[in-house]
């Protein structure tokens, strides 16, 4: 499935996968939808796509790590599945006993040449089984390392 990214002004550039024709699109009416959209190009190609309204680039990764829940002290192993400058998504290896708005600290190593260790405090935004989405809170000591890593 094709994904097009929305800029700060609510515009996305939709590009035909067949001929490469591009057109700017106002996406404000689609802001709160998760539907796939359909477009028909002037070349006749019909294709479906998603709009991504994220403020920051998200990089898919597969990085082992660990977490500690602040409230319960629960510890566990995780696999970080994607990263951005705003937060992460990870999978716990067993069903977590945490809920939204809980605070956890995660620690993992980037797969860059220097194997940079990242340790950040997070607020849980959503949980779906063992899948967890969280945003960073607290000191941003590793933000420079993450920004450099996300660009590479």
Description:
With 152 residues, the chain is mainly beta. The chain has 2 domains: 2-52, no CATH class; 59-151, Thrombin, subunit H (Beta Barrel). Helices cover 6% and strands 51% of the residues. The chain has 1 helix and 11 strands; from the N terminus they run βββββββββββα. It has one helix spanning 143-151, and strands spanning 2-5, 11-15, 22-26, 37-40, 46-52, 59-69, 75-83, 87-92, 103-109, 117-128, 131-137. The strands form 3 sheets. It has a 6-stranded antiparallel beta barrel with strand order 6-7-8-11-10-9. A hairpin with a 3-residue loop joins β7 (75-83) and β8 (87-92).
Strands side by side in the biggest sheet: 6-7-8-11-10-9
The shape, in one word, is elongated
The tally of structural domains comes to 2
Oligomer: single chain
Largest sheet: 6 strands, antiparallel, barrel
